[in-house]
## 1
Amino acid sequence: DQQVKQNSPSLSVQEGRISILNCDYTNSMFDYFLWYKKYPAEGPTFLISISSIKDKNEDGRFTVFLNKSAKHLSLHIVPSQPGDSAVYFCAASNIQGAQKLVFGQGTRLTINP
Amino acid sequence: DTEVTQTPKHLVMGMTNKKSLKCEQHMGHRAMYWYKQKAKKPPELMFVYSYEKLSINESVPSRFSPECPNSSLLNLHLHALQPEDSALYLCASSQGAGYTEAFFGQGTRLTVV
């Protein structure tokens, strides 16, 4: 049972435009969500997080939106840059198992010049 | 210092060998983790140490044996592995329990022959 789903395995965006990566979850106990970025042969790098008491969190070019009723979150990157090309993982946890992150399958983002 | 350092980067071992993976962080984090990532799959949690005590074991086979000698070090001892155990093994750390983001190392690429 996949509790965190990223239904788009890949996404291609032109440089300078907005990249939108989506993530859905099924476990209503999840109340903390994170986005990680991963380059080949490297470990995941933390990007941004959001608690369920918020619906938006912004950090520079990255914004995460949370829609609890739809059990959906999204990561917006604007403007997209070539260095943003990587695999992006959505992850979730809950207060009872706060140390346990459940990851989605990942979305490979390619930024085209 | 915001790094999690893993050694070795690559390891090839036979099914009868005994080897160890090492992980080190100097961020004062009190939670450390082992994740396993197969190709084109998300990272999957194996073990969590919190304040140097094993707090989560995700039903990992006993051929994987974790050890936390002190708050900065985490080892994963490997014995009698199978070829299907070949994967990227990721170490991570976080400040502690609660909604804190985990910082990942670069991983050890393990091949069992």
Note: The two ends of chain B are 36 Å apart (CA to CA).
## 2
Amino acid sequence: NAGVTQTPKFQVLKTGQSMTLQCAQDMNHNSMYWYRQDPGMGLRLIYYSASEGTTDKGEVPNGYNVSRLNKREFSLRLESAAPSQTSVYFCASSDRDGEKLFFGSGTQLSVL
Amino acid sequence: EDQVTQSPEALRLQEGESSSLNCSYTVSGLRGLFWYRQDPGKGPEFLFTLYSAGEEKEKERLKATLTKKESFLHITAPKPEDSATYLCALNSGGSNYKLTFGKGTLLTVNP
């Protein structure tokens, strides 16, 4: 069982470059989420999708865009990367909103 | 504003030395309190959900308890493989977009 798969695992960008983080889940979950985790801070929600075709902003959405491509896939795009976006990014899914989350293994992003 | 505070930030135990991790919270209406385990370089892994004061849940050497102001994760006779960061998360709106995560407790168990 793959669960939640994120790619890439590591990425280094220069300020102003763009990239897309990919996430796919094989558990037929309805809800998907993107979090960032920074040292000394708790996980913070960037965007979420309660169901296919819908997306909503979380706590820290500025500088990011998302696409819920289908029920399985939820991508996060950085249009113009900034050093403040250096972080570890986690994708997660849940069967229903409010239920336990299943996390991917994360993407470590550095913006120089 | 919902707040979650975990203590201690780090805890070092000897194998077999039982202890507890604390998650204190302030919330207008608790819809669930989650405990997760996170290994280095990995995503958090779900452990427990608690919904009401007095509730307890157990899994192997771990037991989670909940009061109206805090939750404890008790670790009985820990082993080195229990070493990880333990995260507490508060759900005040019945939705995961309202989850508030604590900063975590880094547990190290020495053989």
Note: Chain B has a mean pLDDT of 94.
